[in-house]
């Protein structure tokens, strides 16, 4: 599983690369566990001041691997995906996402926990939870309305239509749109700017901006996951997911 999630530490920056491009970076349970372990490492290592999460210039993540998801025998609350979103909600260092190509489900909702996000102009975002017979996750039912307003959040989370990078910029979901070939370098340049800021000033600024909603985010995540698991066990959702996983 290690080769599906790559990591590199250089100049106080931990770069995490999702590396399952033959499957559009669809995330397996073990990949989520690897991501959680790297986020834990970043929290514990004072040498790491910033984290960049990326795919490549054509793909970020197509979300959960549906076959892996359906074949799991564990409760969702015991799975790697829930562990990862909990880690995201509590993470305490600057996090930058570099997004290209498909950013589906968690590929979009994790951006709500990032401090900055850069997207290539080929990025396509999608939140298809209701279309799958499911409900929002990763506290997106709380964070997205705060960002874009309730009615727009309803449209994105319930109708689930895809939207492009320029729309994501207008919605304040990302900071900047760049050409695909400039994406990864742009994210690294921003990370390098951040680590030049005095470490305590960077950390305290980040805490003051982000900490206000951490407790409610954790509560919303827990409520969402209980509803998500209940919906996952309905005949409608099972039928949709099995059809798509073929």
From TrEMBL:
Main location as per UniProt: other
InterPro entries per record: ClpP/crotonase-like_dom_sf, ECH/Chromodomain_protein, Enoyl-CoA_hydra/iso
Top-rank taxon: Bacteria
Pfam families: ECH_1
Subcellular location: Peroxisome
CDD domains in alphabetical order: crotonase-like
Matching SUPFAM superfamilies: ClpP/crotonase
Signal peptide per UniProt: none
Keywords: Isomerase, Peroxisome
Protein name per its UniProtKB record: Enoyl-CoA hydratase
Native organism: Thalassotalea eurytherma
């Amino acid at each position: 599983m290690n080769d599906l999630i790559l990591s590199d530490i250089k100049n106080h920056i931990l770069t995490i690369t999702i590396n399952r491009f033959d499957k559009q970076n669809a995330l397996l349970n073990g990949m989520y566990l690897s991501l959680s372990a790297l986020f834990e490492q970043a929290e514990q290592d004072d040498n790491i001041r910033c984290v960049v999460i990326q795919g490549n210039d054509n793909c970020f993540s197509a979300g959960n691997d549906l076959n892996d998801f359906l074949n799991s025998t564990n409760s969702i609350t015991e799975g790697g995906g829930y562990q990862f979103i909990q880690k995201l909600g509590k993470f305490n260092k600057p996090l930058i996402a570099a997004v290209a190509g498909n950013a589906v489900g968690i590929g979009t909702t994790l951006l709500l926990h990032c401090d900055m996000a850069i997207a290539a102009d080929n990025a396509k975002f999608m939140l298809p939870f209701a279309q799958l017979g499911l409900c929002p996750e990763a506290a997106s039912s709380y964070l997205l309305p705060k960002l874009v307003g309730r009615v727009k959040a309803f449209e994105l989370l319930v109708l689930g239509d895809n939207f492009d990078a320029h729309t994501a910029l207008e919605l304040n979901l990302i900071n900047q749109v760049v050409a695909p070939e400039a994406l990864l370098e742009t994210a690294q340049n921003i990370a390098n700017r951040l680590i030049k800021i005095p470490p305590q000033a960077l950390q305290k600024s980040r805490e003051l901006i982000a900490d206000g909603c951490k407790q409610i985010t954790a509560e919303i995540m827990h409520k969402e996951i209980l509803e998500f698991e209940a919906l996952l066990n309905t005949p409608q959702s099972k039928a949709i997911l099995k059809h798509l996983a073929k």
